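FORM 7B: Structural annotation worksheet

SECTION A. Query
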Amino acid sequence: MTRPAGVPGRRGHEGGETHNWCFQQNRPAYDVKPALPGVRCPTLITVGRHDWVTPVASSETIAALIPDSQLVIFEKSGHSPPSDEPELFRRVVRDFLAEVAPEA
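SECTION B. Predicted structure
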């Protein structure tokens, strides 16, 4: 796969620069909020209190738009609650799955 001119990163390693470049290019037109009220499956939304990529306010908006969704804010996390608070994250996900799919 050939990277378009001007896209940072190197073959075999897609670092943060590539991720950020993609968001800068696509973000102005990327808005799925109108579709969120149509989500009809159990939805767990997780966010770190100190997330600078997707702030808590954005996750609150998502949670408000998805019917019956559940929002969990990880107080000691940044953008990666699974890495920042792994035990708590696993417990939250397991509890959510037990609630929405108890027979599984």
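SECTION C. Observations
The two ends are 40 Å apart (CA to CA). The mean pLDDT is 84.

SECTION D. Sign-off
Analyst initials: ____
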